[in-house]
Amino acid sequence: MVNPPSIFMGGDRDFAYDLSGAVTGAASYLSYANAKRSLPASLFVSTNAGMMHAFNAEAGDEMAAFMPRRSLRRMLNYADADYLFEYTLDGPLSEHDIYDGANWNHLAVGTGGRGERLLYAVRSPLNSSGTPNRTPGQNDFLWETGPDLIDNTSLQLGHITNPVRSGQTENGQWIVVANNGHYNGRIDGTRSGLVVLDAMTGSVIRTIALPATYSAGRGLSGVTLVRNADKRVVAAYAGDANGNLWRFNLRGAPASWGVSYNRPMFTTANNRPIYGSPAWQVHPNGGTVVVVATGMLLQDSDLGDTAVSEAIYGIWDPTVIGQDDAAGFTTVIRDDLLTQSVLPETAVVAGAGTFFRSSRNAIDWNVHRGWTMPLGQSYQGERSLDLIRNLGSSVIITTTVLRAVEDPDAEMCSVSNLPANYIYILNALDGATARSFDIDGDGRLDNVSVVLVAGGGYSRGMSVANIIRSVSLTDVIRERLSIDGSTGESPAEIQKCSPIRARLLGTESGSFAAGVACEVAGWSRNQYQLSRPPSN
């Protein structure tokens, strides 16, 4: 069984993050990036046979296969005559550019997911001797780690099903950062927190446990890093399965790292769980606004957990990027938030979806400390199971409308009968509606911000392809797609609205024309026509 998501290494795609700041190795990054582009892309795939396979993405040939040692324990069960299915190597793979002090390294970092509790890293090499290629060798399996090397009296590793993140810290260390995962064996929700490893060796740099007085429920969820203007990691955000939103301070030496405020930034209504990684953008009054959405699907009982609705939240964190934690912070409560809502349907497009506007209630930052939008207004069971993505000054939230399956033991290896999805593209700062989707294909974004996709295909792993336009010498407009890294990170400055055209890519051939449209106050759409001089 192949376990999504797979990951492309190299090829004509955007890189994990902009390295134009003051990270070490920045001067040689462009030549490294060009070297990646010059070689055939690789496709890395983990499978339930316990192996991660590396393929030539263009030819389809297998180049190498690696087996994390800790996967072997479950594979021994295959010989049992009474064997029942269990996950072995099920976690996501993520792509990372890491500088080791002399050279850049192109890494895939994976986890055991619902299988073994482990993390591992494999390098996708840039081989230049002989025929240039990207075939990994034995030395490219860099490291593997697990509970035996990570667990301590304050933190225990669980099953990590969210992608890990990476970067260079303020004090110069190159790190990979993971949540401790779910189901760590502590039924009281304790010993959860952040795991920070050396990116090239996998050795533990620091574990940061949540305060013992708070329960994380089933565990800490997906992590999003915060980088300063120099592109160095200074903080992180993550939610947990008990609905708490946390900030981690990663400034200075590892010994000084810790949980900001020593309390959650916010706790969701009814303690609804946060699973996906947050998104953040700089707040105009200082600090950031952090966007999360609730929902979880980790065990069968989650399918029937639909009596209480989920929600999207945007929470104002007053700590300025790269500075000390804001003094006097108190946890944001639900009454501090402005409420936005989805309005009645605007358009139904055959073969595409049902489109909606949402409200544009004005936020008052002297009164409000963020915003919220309830989910499930049309269907019970709607929830967010994926990371939140930035798109310019907007955020993209995908949700899934769950329904009980007829046969929970049946294998589902096709894309038929998928659960429906909603896709929201909202202004990050206040959750207000925006011109986000091109309904009729005329190249203009229409006044809708939500689409219901009855056919599904957008639950997890959606890609955002930015449309880059250029004009040739003959005035012909040409377009190409540039695949975005699609994380919740943002530049360390206020995101002024800039027009963006993009395509959201789902399962198989599904896609939507989307983007960000910026309104210019005081100008009429007829101004150009009225002021244009007549032709001869």
Provide a descriptive summary of the structure in words:
The chain is 5% helix and 35% strand. Strands 22, 23, 25, 26, 27, 28 and 29 form a 7-stranded antiparallel sheet that branches. Strands 13, 14, 15, 16 and 17 form a 5-stranded antiparallel sheet that branches. With 536 residues, it is mostly beta strands. A hairpin with a 5-residue loop joins β11 (193-198) and β12 (204-209).
Chart the SSEs and their pairings.
Blueprint (H helix, E strand, L loop, with lengths): L1 E8 L16 H13 L3 E6 L4 E5 L5 E5 L5 H4 L17 E7 L4 E8 L7 E5 L17 E5 L1 H4 L14 E4 L5 E6 L13 E6 L5 E6 L10 E8 L5 E8 L3 E6 L8 E2 L6 E2 L11 E4 L5 E6 L17 E7 L19 E3 L2 E8 L3 E6 L11 E5 L7 E2 L5 E3 L2 E8 L19 E7 L22 E4 L9 E9 L5 E7 L16 E6 L5 E6 L10 H5 L5
Range of helix content: under 10%
> Could you tell me how far the N terminus lies from the C terminus, measured between alpha carbons in angstroms?
67 Å
Instruction: Give start-end ranges of low-pLDDT stretches.
Output: 11-17, 470-484, 522-536
- Beta-strand percentage range: 35-45%
Outline, from the CA principal axes? globular
Individual helix count: 4
Brief description of this entry?
The protein is mainly β.
